[in-house]
Amino acid sequence: MAKAWIQKSSGNMAALRLKDIPLPEPQEGQARVRVQYCGLNLADVFAVLGLYSATPKGPFIPGLEYSGIVEEVNGPRNSPIKKGDRVMGLTRFGGYATHVNADLRYLRKFPGKWNLQHAAAFPVQALTAYSGLESLGALSQMPRGSTVFIHSGAGGVGLHALQVCKHFGALPVVSVGTDAKIRFLEELGLNRDHIIVRTKKGFALELDHKLKRFKREGFDIVFDAIGAPYFKPLYQRLNPAGRHIYYGSANFMPSGSRPNYAKLAMKYLGRDRIDPLEMISSNRSVMGFNLIWLYNQVERLHSLYEDMMQIKWQPPIIDRVFPFEKAVEALDYFKQGSNRGKILLEVQE
Length: 349
Hints:
alpha/beta
């Protein structure tokens, strides 16, 4: 038997329950992984709250990534994954479990100097940052010194996006939610001039100040997981041929353990809209992006991962590690948006 967190019906975070589940032998092409750490992502919170369109119907196990030890392999002899290997894994839900029968195609070994915490903190957020900025944003095809705006620069995706910018020689400007996160990013080597604290009233003026400071007309890429009220001010400051990569809507995050549908409806009806004809005349684009779509694009995902690993990634920064039994508390902490780096669950047996 294994243990897993089960959400019987989406809509209430408090309904998440830790239960025993069967642990069958791995099928052909699978490996059984004894999970050590589960990585938390924004999609987990939205899935549990019933606000994520990709969520499975009926009861489901949250979690898109994990790390652990391979206990058994049912695959070809030449498989790169062997019993005893330390691996990181991607899964289309099912990661909040003590054991996972994983498709071998979604398991990877990780850099030798990293530990299992680093491994659980890496796949989803690094792939999001790289795929958004490079596959969609075409950052490598832009001149060095191109300007990139990154929301939530102190979060897991934001920290990986900064490394992508460094790799391709881009100039990043980031937003954070609090002054404390300014100090955190400064300690990591980011100059204060590159950071904006998000305020609804002063945000547009701050954008103009930063662009003037760097003698730039606008941004070449906007990497956005928040949306309104910051969407339009950023879109309006895109350079011609600029790309607004929109991969999340944290502004829809409920404050409680269940959604307030009246408030969400008001936000939805008041969401920003872009006129396609204006996009033509200004030569700007908006590109929606959901990493989970790539899960079934196996060859494309493999190629993306291989390209991504040309970057000399620093070990991911871990904000907090919660016991596996405290998944609800961990998700609630994540929902508050105060983390600097990754949040993990640790499985202890």
